[in-house]
Amino acid sequence: MLTRNRILPRNLADMFTFAPARSAVAAAAVLAWIMLGINAFAPGAARAADPAGDAPTLAQEAASSAKLRILTYSYGWDFFNDYAEMFKRNAAAKGGPAPVIKIEPGQSTRLIEGVVKGDAADVVAMTSPGDLTPLVKAGLLAADWQTTHKAASIPFQTTIVFLVRKGNPRGVKDWGDLVREGVSVIVASPLNAGSGRYSYLAAWSFQKAAGKTDAEAREFVKKLFTVNASVTGGGRKGSTSVFVDNKSLDVLLTFETEIMRLAKEYPDKFDIVRPPTSVLCEFPAARLTKYTQLHGNDALAQAFVDQLYTPEAQRLGCKHGLRSIHPDIRKEFSETLPPMKMTDVTKEFGPWADIMQKHFVPGGEYDKMNETD
C-alpha cells in the first residue's frame, strides 16, 4: 500500500533495479588489437580468411569480440536498445564487425555509485550532468568533460510534464494545481532519481517566476513533496508503475519521454498536460576512458557516443519522445513535441555540482523538508 507524504522504503526501488553484470574483453583479443592496430569500427577491421581456410585468425577473434557496456537511466532502455541496433547496422555498412552492445538500465544514482565502486562500464548515459558529478570526484571523468565534446556532451533534451487520468477530472493545468487540497501526486525521490530532481527544481522555479522569495518557493516545494505527493524510489518500476496501477493517484510527474510512452500505451486511460512553463532536462552521455582503454574499445565507445548527435539518431530519439538538440529536427517533430517555455536550471540555480550539494545530498534542502517539525 502506498504511504502518502512519506518516502517509500528504498527496497521498493531495489526490487526492480537492474544489477549490472561485469564483463571484459578476452586478454588475447585485447593483445591482438594492440599489436595489430585493429580498429573495430574501421573498414580495415573486416574479416580476412585464415590461410588454412578452416579457422578464424586471432585478428578475427579480436574483431568479433568487440563489446560495449552502456549504463543508462531506467527510461532510457527503449531508445538505447533501438539505437544500439542502428549503430550495429551502420558498423556493418562500413565493413566493420557488428559489435556486441549490452544496454543495462537502472536507477541513475545507483548505477553511478556502482561505477565509482569499480563497475567498469564503457559509456554512461544519464538524466542530468549532476548524475556524473561523482565520476568527476572519483577521477573517472575529466572535470571539463562537458567543454571537450560537441554540444556540451548533451545529445538529447526533455522536460517535466504531467500525466493525468483520462479527461483530467481534477482540472490540473499548472504547477500551482498540484498543491490544491485533494490532488494526489506521485513523483520519484529527488535523492536518487533525475526525474525527481528536475520536478523539484521545476516547482521551485515556478514560484520564483511568479515573484516569490526563496523562502516562499521552499514552502511550496515542501508542500508538494510532503503533503500532496507520494514519493517513490523512482524509475519505470517505481513511480510510473505505481501510478498506472493505483487509480487513487491523480498526477504523475516525470520526464516527457516517459509520459508520452504511457499515453501511447494507454490512450484510453491517460492524458498529457504540458504546463505553461517547466525546466530544461539535459541528458548527457560520456565514455569512461579509464575503462575503455582497459577494454581496448575506446574508439568504438567514442563512435557510439558521437553517432548520438547525427540526424539519424536525433530523429530516432524524437520518435521515442526525446527532444533533439538540432533546431531543424525539432521543427520536424513539433506536432508531437510542441515548443515549450523551459528554464535552464543552471542559470537559475547555478552549476550542477552546487545544485546537488545544496539540495540533494543527505542533510540538504530536500532532506530538511522531510524532517519532523
List keywords for this structure.
16% strand; 373 residues; alpha/beta; disordered N terminus; eight-stranded mixed β-sheet; 12 strands; globular
Report a brief summary of the structure.
This protein is α/β, with parallel strands linked by helices. The protein has 17 helices and twelve strands.
Question: What do these coordinates show?
Answer:
The protein is an alpha/beta fold and 373 residues long. The protein contains 17 helices and twelve strands. Strands 4, 5, 6, 7, 8, 9, 11 and 12 form an eight-stranded mixed sheet that branches. Helix 4 (77-93) links the parallel strand 1 (67-73) and strand 2 (100-106). Helix 2 crosses helix 3 (58-64). The longest helix has 17 residues, at 77-93. The chain is globular, with a radius of gyration of 22 Å. The relative contact order is 0.16. Mean pLDDT is 83; it is low at 1-65.
As an assembly, this protein is single chain
Q: Helix-strand pattern, N to C?
A: HHHEHEHEHEEHHEHEHEEEHHHEHEHHH
Query: How much is the average pLDDT?
Result: 83
Question: Which stretches are poorly predicted, pLDDT < 50 over at least 5 residues?
Answer: 1-65
Number of helices: 17
How much helical structure, as a percent, in the residues? 40-55%
Per-chain topology:
Elements: H1 10-14, H2 27-36, H3 58-64, E1 67-73, H4 77-93, E2 100-106, H5 108-116, E3 123-125, H6 133-137, E4 156-165, E5 185-188, H7 194-209, H8 214-228, E6 229-232, H9 236-245, E7 251-255, H10 256-265, E8 270-273, E9 277-283, E10 285-287, H11 289-295, H12 298-306, H13 311-319, E11 323-324, H14 327-332, E12 341-343, H15 345-349, H16 352-360, H17 365-369
Parallel strand pairs: 1-2, 1-3, 5-6, 5-7, 9-12
Antiparallel strand pairs: 3-10, 4-7, 4-8, 4-9, 4-11
Helix pairs in contact: 2-3, 7-8
